[in-house]
Every structure is written in C-alpha cells, then in structure tokens.
C-alpha cells in the first residue's frame, strides 16, 4: 500500500468540499512474479460519502487483506491462487468500504489479466477503442472565471461540460454558460446532495436551459425524494452517490428516482460490480456514463475500459490527465479530437512510473496474505 500526494493543477471545489491535492492510496499486489495495481478513490475527507483515504487504508490493512486468505484457500489457481471473481465474496464479511474493496479487487484483476494477457476493456466486454472526453468544472470564484474555463475546455476539444452546483451557485452559472456558448456545449449539473425536496421549484428554473441531466440533487438515501422531484422537473435526474450496487441501481430505477445512472467502480466496490450496474441499467433501458474521482492514470485507465462498454452512451467525467495533474503517475492520457484512447495492453494497460512514484510517495506499508 503506497500513499502519494499529487498537487492538483487547480483546487477542485464542489458541494462535497474542496480538494487541493490528491491524497492517493495505491495498492500494489505481488502474487508470485505477477504485479497488479489498484487505485483507491476515497477522498481525503468523508464529505462525498462516508469513505476517506485514512479509513480505507486502515480497513484494507486490518480487515480486507486478512479476508483475502479465504479466496486463497477456496479458489481455483489463476493468478497465484487468488482470482478477482472471488474477491467480492471473500470481502463480504466487511460491510461497506466499497472504495477500499474496489482498490483491492482491481489489483487482483489487473494481476490476473496481465498474466492471461487480456486487457480490462476486453474482459469487461468493451465495444469501442476510444471514448469521448467530458470535463467537470468545480465551483469557481466568479462567473467570469467559470465562463473562461468553459471556453478553454471547448477549445481543447471537450464537447460536454458538467458544472458543480450548490445553493447560491446554480441558475446563474448555467445561464452564463448557455448565454455565452448556446447549444455548442452539452451541459449538465451536479448537486452532490446539497438540495432538499423543498427546492423543487427553484431547481425547475434549470429546465429552460435544456440540461442533459441534473446529478444527485438530494442526499444519497432519499430515493423517494428523487422520485418526487422527478415529477416536478423536466431535466432528467441522474444518481451518483445513491448507487452503491447493481441492486441499488435496480431499486432506484424501479422507484422512478432516476432515468440516468453515473457508474463509478470505486463507489460500487469494483469494476466487476460496475459491469453489473451497467447490465442492470441496460436491461431497464437506462443510459449510463462513467464518473470520475480525480483519478491518477491508474484509475483513469480502468475508467476508460469501463466507459468503452455498450450502454455508456452518455459522455463521462473522463478528462485528459493534464486537466488535474502536471505530472501523472503513468504516461498521461491525452485528448485526440475530443476523444481519449482506451488502453489496450494487458490488465489496466498502464505502468506507474517508478521515478514519479518515488518522488511523490509519502508512506509505504506491506501487508501479507
Ligand atoms: O473528472 O475525475 C473527474 C472529477 C469528476 O466531479 C467529479 N467528481 O462528485 O463526482 C463527483 C466529483 C468528486 C471528485 C467526488 C472527487 C469526490 C471526490
């Protein structure tokens, strides 16, 4: 387990707090001679969901790695004697902590796929080799700053922009962007649970701006509230924090709480559960898109593979590495005509650069299964 501190190009502010640096936890699994990597997306503080990076680190070391011993005994040997398919069941005695579990499962999956010579994209059933890039813009100091940032993003080739909103920063920024750029930009907003059902009338003022969606306006456990809000807005509702599993996605859809789903592997416990979320949504005719958590190249590689699946028909929070990091842990992902290439190499298809790792590492811990 390796902790690293990566300075962000600019601080990222949302209703869930401000990140100045990314405090990253990487898991490096060594199984015989095979290596696998996983990035834990838990932020530094528990403001987005209850998970945070120190807690994730503790739960991996103290509770999750010891659970992996049971896969070791039970599973058929593929990578060493641990297979990614068995990881979620082995970790099930620990409740929650999905971001921590996802990091561990991804490291096992990466090792297994590297050994087999298969890419994560092909393993998940990807249907494309590049995905359109989208950008998420944090709450800006002024409307002028925001509009300038949108202009730069459009110049760089991003075709879809998501604005972070909160009470006091919602209608005006959306209006400012629409007035300046018209329908040249596919626009959506993300409330990170900062609103109440009593704000329905206010949020309905977003309807005339033809947003692609409003994401997570209410708190994560208020599915009924989202369903009620959906009857009062024309703007489609997307859920993020509420969707903790494929079952949660099925429930939210059945209740009419959302018509779009944001899929984040970390939030649902790993890429294998993320694929199940994709499948549940596809079966219900609900389009999905890939969310982002300010990942380094390690996590970004996995997200690109996920977003290459068929029902990821909406543009995700998948930006070039340079949007967030001057220097990424892996070779940077770049925009090419508004698209980012899906890694094709074995496993995640990326290799963290030793000299960058060494320079940015703040702590290393070794745990044995
Ligand atoms: O492009 O990686 C990205 C950022 C996308 O807005 C984004 N992420 O609420 O979805 C979110 C938000 C986030 C970032 C949440 C960091 C938690 C931590």
Could you describe the 3D structure shown?
- The chain is α/β, with parallel strands linked by helices and 369 residues long.
- It folds into 2 domains: 130 residues, Enolase-like, domain 1 (2-Layer Sandwich), CATH 3.30.390.10; 220 residues, Alpha-Beta Barrel (TIM Barrel), CATH 3.20.20.
- 36% of the residues lie in helices and 19% in strands.
- The strands form 3 sheets. It has a 7-stranded parallel sheet with strand order 5-6-7-8-9-10-11.
- It is globular.
- The site of N-succinyl phenylglycine (NPG) has 15 residues, from loops.
Task: Provide a compact summary of the structure.
The chain has 369 residues and is an alpha/beta fold. It is 36% helix and 19% strand. The protein contains 13 helices and 13 strands.
